[in-house]
Amino acid sequence: MDFVDAIASARYELIGRILGKSVERTSRPKSFSDIVDIVLLDKYLGIPIFLTLMWTVFQFAFSISAPFSTAIDILFSSGSEWSKTIIQNEVLASLIGDGIFGGLGFILVFLPPIAFVFIALAILEDTGYLPRAAFVMDRAMTKVGLHGKSFIPMLLGFGCNVPAIMGCRTIENEADRKITIMVNPLMSCSARLPVYVLFAGAFFAGYEGFAITSMYLLGIVLAAIMATVIRKLFFGGEPSPLLMEIPDYSMPTLKNILTSAWIRVKIFLKKAATILFAGAIIIWFLSVFPWDATNGGEILENSYAASIGHAIEPVIAPLGFDWKAGVALFTGFVAKELVVGTLGILYGVESEEAIAEAIAVDFNPATALALMAITLIYLPCLAALGVLVRELGELKWVGLVIAYELLLAYIVAAIIVAIGGVIL
Amino acid sequence: MKLSELRDGEKGLIIEVRGNSALKNRLLSMGIVRGAEIKMVRNAPLKDPIEFELKGYFLSLRRSEAENVIVEVKE
Question: B61 near B50, Cβ under 8 Å?
Fold first, then answer.
């Protein structure tokens, strides 16, 4: 027995003596929590109940919050239209309408999912279910280099990586938390879906579901691989111990829940929004300038954004993409769903069907699948990057995320194109 | 025997706590000390981790962590 052992034993021995004098123990009947856990942590029922609960949380966080986001989007779009009609100076109208109103709208649509995610997380935490969720999933998550507590943030990533990354604060251990944050962008959020739908519809008619599902699975597999690799390379060792108390269930309080949501909303607005707003203004500038050449932002081909597309072209040309895909990926960095709209603008068409027809000329099934994979992997969107900076703290980790994602996107796309070249 | 080998509902008396110092310190601070009584409550649905009851509260431990605690089965 060593020193630490001796101290701990002596301490508990003293506690035991005091308790012996002052507390009378009677045999405890099964408490409410004991009975609930017999069902919720059951060998067979535990996982189905857990998955049902998680499905409910997911729907609550993302489906119920969606109309609020739509309302915010509509509000700022009409603000944008309105400011463009009343401001005479064209550059100023574009700055205020597209840059500021557009940028604010793009940032504020994240508030409803953030608020709803944290309402849901606060309920799970206050009721006492959160440690039980870690208890149920720990085995599966430690297999892939994560921690039992990583499961919920990873799941939330399928809705939106922004609140998902913020939700990683429920993971106490620093290494476990950082790794979970760094691989979270690989979970395919709902903004990537329109891109998948467009390309799958155009090139995999009849097998759209298969093509789209493969992207979600690809994200999960890559997240598992990257979590394991990042842990090995930068953190070493095993996930932190799952030494945690499983508390009694309790009734959550409304005040706690709302405070928790409000704190997160405030964090997002204060820190992330400043980076996001600056980013949105820069992207606006690059899309409409040089002003005369783009005819006030109407001809995207002549903008600085297009120049960036041309600059990217040599890098992505071996994969079978031209500068137009480069521009789409550039704007897609702001918000991934913009890839669709940008391709529409560049091909000079508007409806989804017309875009699908237009891209059919420049892409083939292999490059289409490769572009879907690139959209999944290549970079976190601007908003996710904002919270990555905030939540990871050190820029070296943010740099690591950007570096591995770019590299991984390129490698995966190259593999898809190569295999496609053999098959097709 | 090892703490991880207790069966559902079985109680044990802790004889020794092993493991690297970080893990050992955490185990000790959670009340897993020599002489304490500990009861195995249940396995997680995937058989790992394990839930224990000691000193009037419930604690989860991975199988690999529980292997560092040596117990004597209590009748």
Answer: yes
Sheet (strand B57-61) strand order: A244-245, B57-61, B50-54, B37-43, B11-17, B69-74
Q: How confident is the model at residue B50 (pLDDT cuts 50, 70, 90)?
A: very high
Q: Is B5 within 8 Å of chain A by CB?
A: no
Cis, bond preceding A290 (omega within 30 deg of 0): yes
Fold of domain B3-74: SH3 type barrels. (2.30.30)
| Whole-Å CA distances, A130 to A246, A291, A311, B63 | 9, 53, 47, 20
User: For A305-347, what is each residue's pLDDT tens digit?
Assistant: 888 888 989 999 999 898 889 888 988 888 888 888 888 888 8
Q: Which helix (H) or strand (E) holds A71?
A: helix A66-86
Three-state secondary-structure class, residue A364:
coil
Summarised one tens digit per residue, pLDDT across range A161-171 is 999 999 999 99
In the prediction, which pLDDT does A374 show? Answer: 95
Per DSSP, B41 falls in state E
Q: Is the model's pLDDT at A302 over the cut of 60?
A: yes
**Chain A residue with minimal CA distance to B62?**
A242
The percent of residues above 70 in pLDDT, for chain A, comes to 99
pLDDT of residue A298: 76
**CB–CB of A138 and B29 under 8 A?**
no
**What is the count of structural domains for chain A?**
1
A186 lies in a domain? Answer: no
**Domain residue spans of chain B:** 3-74
Q: Which residue does chain B place closest to A247, by CA atoms?
A: B58
What predicted TM-score, i.e. pTM, was given to this entire model? 0.88
Average pLDDT over residues A123-134: 92
- A294 part of a folded domain: yes
Say yes or no for a CB contact (<8 Å) between A138 and B58.
no
A315 inside domain = yes
Average of per-residue pLDDT across B34-63: 93
10 Å CB burial of residue A233 (0-12, 13-18, 19+) is exposed
**Residue A325, domain extent:** 269-423
Chain A residues closer than 8 Å to B58 by CB: 245-247
Q: Is residue A274 part of a domain?
A: yes
Kindly state the average pLDDT of the residues A187-209. 90
Q: Please list every residue in chain A whose beta carbon sits closer than 8 Å to the beta carbon of residue B24.
A: 4-5
Contacts with A, B 19-58, CB within 8 Å: 21, 23-31, 33-36, 42-49, 51, 57-58
- List residues in chain A touching B: CB distance below 8 A: 1, 4-5, 8-9, 12-13, 37, 41-44, 46-47, 131, 134-136, 138-140, 142, 148, 238, 241-247
